[in-house]
Amino acid sequence: MDVRVGDTLVMKKNHPCGENRFEVLRSGMDFKLRCVGCGRQVMVARSKCEKNIKKIIHQDEG
Q1: Domain of life of the organism in this record (predicted)?
Q2: Which end of the chain is more exposed for a tag (fewer CB within 10 A), N or C?
Q3: Are 1 and 56 in contact (CB under 8 A)?
Q4: pLDDT tens, residue by residue, 39-49
Q5: Contact 3, 28 (CB under 8 A)
């Protein structure tokens, strides 16, 4: 999967705050994500995160 820093990921499951969009802050063996709704930052293993991605909104698409 082509996930880059700055992209927004729309996930299948919601964050506890109710938002399902996350901004990618760091990518590698794991992702550092920031919830768009509440601003909380989480680290998620790449394999687990890729299973739960519904859509990738690239930073240059808007």
Answers
A1: Bacteria
A2: C
A3: yes
A4: 999 999 999 99
A5: no
User: Do 58 and 10 meet the contact criterion of CB atoms below 8 Å apart?
Assistant: no
What is the residue whose two structure tokens read 């930052």?
41
Give the Cα separation of 45 and 30 in Å (integer): 4
Cβ-based neighbours of 62, under 8 Å, separated by 6 or more: none
pTM of the model: 0.89
- Which pair of structure tokens corresponds to residue 47? 């394999």
The reply to whether CATH 2.30.30 applies to domain 8-57 is yes
